[in-house]
Amino acid sequence: MKTWQLQDLKNKFNEVVENAIQNGPQIVIKNSTETVVILSINDYQKLTKPKNGLVEFFQKSPLYGVELDLEREDDFGREVEF
Asked: What is the pLDDT along the chain (82 residues), one digit of tens a residue?
């Protein structure tokens, strides 16, 4: 990963974006500290994509296979006098 000083980044933003697209994440340094990473949308989507689908998530749940009583009782509330 290439690093960029913040003051250089301001003048070379287009170059930094192109480097992120072509060569991967770019690190921005502010006050001698790595503070920000600029990356392409493809790299971002790879990082944020769920590793498992919803069905697989529920299948791996510790509650998978537990029988639940999902029937509702015929409860119509209570009478209230006004």
From this structure: 788 788 888 889 999 999 999 999 999 999 999 999 999 999 999 999 878 888 888 888 888 888 888 888 887 788 888 8
- b/e per residue 5-43 (b: at least 16 CB within 10 A): eeeebeeeeeebeebbeeeeebebbeeeeeeeebbbeee
Q: Which domains does the chain show, CATH number per domain?
A: 2-59 (3.40.1620.10)
At 47, give phi and psi (nearest 5°): -70, -35
DSSP state of 73: P
Cα–Cα dist 70/75, whole Å: 15
Measure the CA–CA gap between 29 and 36, rounded to whole angstroms. 7
Q: How many CB atoms lie within 10 A of CB 45?
A: 10
